[in-house]
Amino acid sequence: MLNLDHVSGGYDGQPVVQDIHFSVSPGEFFGILGPNGSGKTTLMKMISGLIPCMSGSIQLNNQNIRHFSRKALAKKMAVLPQLTAHTFSYTVRETVALGRYAHHEGFFQTWTPEDEHVLQTVMAQTNITAFKHEAVQELSGGEQQRVFLAQALAQQPNLLLLDEPTNHLDLAYQKNLLDLLKKGAEQEGLTVVSIFHDLNLASLYCDRLLLLHEGRERALATPDGVLTEDLIQEVYQAEVKKHPHPEVAKPQMYLLPDEAETTEEVTIGPSMLDIRPEHITLTAPIPLRTISSGVCGAGIGWHRDFVNRHVLCDYNCSDPEGEMRDYLERNGFDTSRTVGMMTAVQMEDAAYGVWENDYISVFTVVTAGTGNATDSARAAGQTRPAVQGTINIWLFVNGYVTEDAFIQAIMTATEAKAQALRELGIKDETTGTIATGTSTDSILVAATQQGETLPYAGTATELGQLIGKSVYAETKKAIQRYQAG
């Protein structure tokens, strides 16, 4: 569809972009990235034919764009530039209708039923029909951007070029516009080439990305290949972290701001624990990085309040998360920053302790009941009575824990819990075999993200050994208290 063959170009004989070489396939959504001054807009002007190549060539459908007349090129290609001021006071309908000019022939142009159908379709697609009789100049910047997109779509192009298409659009209209373009690419074969400043939007919608740096190609690949921490830090001179989108298989980049001030180092320990008959709580003085399987606050996040709530052994609720949120709110907890768990065991049977060496400390809290003890290797297909149980483990690490270490901490803690059950001879009453846990266990790992960096938490590491020893000891202690009660 579009082919750039070692293209260089710029202004007044001075190249701005140099030796750019890539092809875009029909129906592809192709993104162009780069910091200010990297040559994005210059390259887009060259593709659209506004400025000539100094060297190399640009072909559209295997034909050099220099061989198209302006009107013929407009039938194949439409351009949505960055929003600028417009002198003429046309209505929205009149402005969009200008997009049909390329399809008219002869001196006396006649508006056809096909023109009207296209006009109505693109105005509906861009959600501007409601103000079609208003003057464009009276619209907001976001509304104007949608009008000029409709004008470009009215050309019915094979190739659509966009320079910062989401400028001036609020969040919902950014999504609607890009969803529309993505649908056009996937369902109608529209080829889209767009400049982006927003790396995350480019990642979500583009099939491939070209990253420009000082007028040259720095990377050309899928979003995962271009949006790497090293590349973005090199080109944009900004520290970032890469994480996968939680719902879509695309990367997202997160800026790391400079710390405004140094936060006093915090140590999480027993003085912060509050044990009452109705619940155990811990409130941290700073947000802690967490991974948990709690009823509320599950997954990865940042939290300050931690609640392990007592419920009756016959507790049954069709919406445990909603009911837990109600409970937390009634007790003055902000659910957006709280991890909430529940257990049927008595809160006074909790076991806890600080485990430390010269530079790491772990505060471990365990509540444990084994009435619904389960052998996870043999649990399939078994009908189990709803009896008292649940082992809830809290691990507070005073240190900086990497993502690898968070996952390994859960593995190490689970192995230690299973060993405690094995040594205590806790059995799955249904299978008669040694239990590995209970059917409703929960775990929390929280870290202060201060001080020593702890890259791993497997059993070969000092952190892993502290976690293993503490979970093993505190779980045995909590189960023995439960059994004694």
Q: What does this 3D model show about the protein?
A:
By secondary structure, the protein is α/β, with parallel strands linked by helices. The protein has two domains: 2-255, Rossmann fold; 270-376 and 386-484, 4-Layer Sandwich (L-amino peptidase D-ALA esterase/amidase), CATH 3.60.70. It is 29% helix and 30% strand. The chain contains twelve helices and 24 strands. The strands form six sheets. Strands 13, 14, 15, 16, 17, 18, 20 and 23 form an eight-stranded mixed beta sheet that branches. It has a six-stranded mixed beta sheet with strand order 6-7-8-3-9-10, with helices on both faces. Helix 11 packs parallel to helix 12. The termini are far apart. 40% of the residues are buried.
Q: What is the quaternary state of this protein?
A: single chain
Rounded to the nearest angstrom, the radius of gyration is: 31 Å
Through-space gap between termini: 76 Å
Tally of individual domains = 2
Contiguous uncertain segments of 5+ residues:
none
The first-level CATH class of the largest domain is given as Alpha Beta
Average predicted confidence as pLDDT: 91
- Helix and strand content put the structural class at alpha/beta
CATH superfamily of the largest domain: P-loop containing nucleotide triphosphate hydrolases
Taken from the alpha-carbon principal axes, the silhouette is elongated
**Biggest sheet character:** 8 strands, mixed
Write down the CATH topology of the largest domain. Rossmann fold
Total helices: the number is 12
In percent terms, what proportion of residues is strand? 25-35%
Query: Which CATH-level-2 architecture of the largest domain?
Result: 3-Layer(aba) Sandwich
Q: What fraction, in percent, of the residue positions are helical?
A: 25-40%
**β-strand number:** 24
